[in-house]
Amino acid sequence: MVITKESLSDIREEFEKAHKKIDEDSKNDPPTEPFRSHYAAKDILQTVQRKLKDLGEMFDVGSEAALTVRCILANVLKDIGRISIFTEELSNGELALKEAFQLVHDDADKPQAVNGFIEVLNQLGILYCNWGNFEESKRHLDQAKEAYETAKQNETVPLTISDLFGTKDEIEKGKGLQLLEKNHTLTLYYLAQVYGYLEDLTRSAHFCHLTLKRQLDYNDYEHVDWALNAATLSQYYFPKNHLSQARHLLAAASYMLDRFEEEVIPKEINPTVKAEKIESHRHRSADIARCWAKYGLHILNASKERLCRDDDEDTGSRQQPKEMLSPIREIDRFIGLDGLSVYEDQISDEFCLTLEDAKLVMLNSLSWLNKAKDYYTKETEASQYAKIVQDVASLYKQLAFFDDNEDNQCKLYKRSADQLEELDQTLNATYYQIICREIWYELGLTYSKMLDVKLTKLETLAADERPAPHALNKINKLCEKSISKFQKFLDSYKILADTLEIPPGIDESELQPILFAFFHIGRLYYKVITPDKRLQLTNVKNSFRYYHHFVKHCEQFEAVGAHFKAEMGVCKEMNALLPLKIKKLMNELNE
After folding, report:
1. Contact at 8 Å (CB) between 382 and 275?
2. Residue 319 has what pLDDT?
3. Residue 321 predicted with pLDDT over 60
């Protein structure tokens, strides 16, 4: 006995009715009943499930008709499972998906079953991933990947659910294969997420890139989502110094957003939808601009670290040719995106060796951050605005390293500090405590850097040349500012200046900057220049107190103190010398 189109017509009608409720009617569900259409669709599908079970009993188990009914039933159960998961009935969803899996598992290589089988495995993969069972999720997704590879190897011509409802003459040629490729792309996408949760970032990046390429190859993507995913993937590559790959991904992201603005938005005739698309474009353009800026910041920071490391090793790296500092050049390029070089040529994919190199990177990154600030304003998105301004400040600070002129260095540090000071004045420390702590700490470091430049300049004076009063005043002002910012940072942890005791319960990850602040304040008090003996005594006593408590807390928190071996050596030496200096000053005052 064969299955007829007529025997499935009522079932098909009900099946399509259920999908209409999910795809269309659900958009109009009231906020008080957000799952109304999904519940209605589930009721219809459960009725379809019963009808299919009755129909299946009419055919021999091994017949083509029975296989077709089982495959349709598996698709229905898969949809019931998806709805259950969506409406937060996760256990019911798992049961429905497992039943669907059993129905088609033994026939997974058949044209009627392969697409449904992969879709069920994908849904199980999502479910277990959401439950945090990443190994189980990976097992199901690996099985979906294997089913796809088997189908391709065997040159199986898969069918869609619409094909299963119709006759052989009504099969839409190519649609089943198109669905197979789409399902496999989803498998790879989910595998990328799971490997990310498993902290196998290399494989996660690999599957992300495969997903993006396949979406392009099969013209199956949303412009904005694709662009955002490409930009996000770049954040994996550039910390590993794969600069060409990262830049290519960012260029592709910008290219795709421009295509969206030029080709998709103008065609939209619904004013509401058009406004939503324009807003989405503005939002994601700002996000991708920030990704570009992060790429530029990394180049500057990594270049500085490489040059410092090479200088320490006395290799004369400043004279090395660029090729010796180049990242991996072999990259996996996207095919079919014409004109990417226009975007790539905006910024280098090489490390900086000179001030001119660094300036170009800095100016481009600054331009991207200014673009991001057009969207993330301090009035509407204060937290994100603050992060952008922190990156602007970091750009100026990074550029200062490449400038050998001491006056220029100070000007760049000053610009960096001005950006952070503006934030300090803008943000409420109660509501934005974490960001404010970052700002105070960074300002303390920046003023300390400016102080070092001024002190170095002072040391170059001839023996018979007296420093100008305003230069000494500048040094003392910088000491005062730096101490003030570090102290605000410590105050936020309720570390009082008179006791310097660290309250219990502070996370170990926060102890390191706290102890560094102690070290810096001890150093800063000692750097104040004054002819007043009483003020000298006060400053030396304060210096000793902070150095003493730095050593004390490093010994108290051994795991954190292990990071401060060099500083511990300095502080122990100062703790031995400063009491002698204090005694000497006291004697001089008593004379």
Report:
1. no
2. 43
3. no
Residue 334's nearest CA partner among 472, 466, 210, 207 is 210
DSSP letter (8 states) at residue 500: -
Tokens representing 251 are 């260029």
CA 97 to chain centre: 32
Label residues 338-377 b or e (16+ Cβ within 10 Å = b): eebeebbebbbbbbbbebebbebbbebbbbbbebbbebbe
Burial class (CB in 10 A: 0-12, 13-18, 19+), 583: exposed
User: Taking 50 as the threshold, does the pLDDT of residue 139 lie above it?
Assistant: yes
For 124, the token pair is: 């199980």
Q: What is the pLDDT of residues 217-268, one digit of tens each?
A: 999 999 999 999 999 999 999 999 999 999 999 999 999 999 999 999 999 9
How far apart are the C-alpha atoms of 285 and 371, rounded to whole Å?
8
| Structure tokens that stand for 70 in this block | 């089982």
| DSSP per-residue string spanning 203-219 | HHHHHHHHHHHHHHHTT
Q: How many helices (H) and strands (E) does the chain have?
A: 22, 0
Could you state, in order of their start, the residue ranges of all structural domains in the chain? 416-487, 493-591
In angstroms, how far is CA 433 from the centroid of its own chain?
Answer: 22
Rounded Cα gap, residues 577 and 185, in angstroms? 68
Chain segment 109-131, per-residue pLDDT in tens: 999 999 999 999 999 999 999 99
| End-to-end Cα distance, the chain | 119
Sign of CA dihedral 113, 116, 119, 125: negative
What are the two backbone dihedrals, phi and then psi, of residue 174, each rounded to the nearest 5 degrees?
A: 90, -25
CA distance 292 to 228: 12
* Residue 119 and residue 159 in contact, taking contact as beta carbons nearer than 8 Å: no
What tokens does 175 get? 């649609």
DSSP assignments along 402-444, one per residue? H---HHHHHHHHHHHHHHHHHHHHHS-TTTTHHHHHHHHHHHH
**What are the tokens at 308?**
């410092």
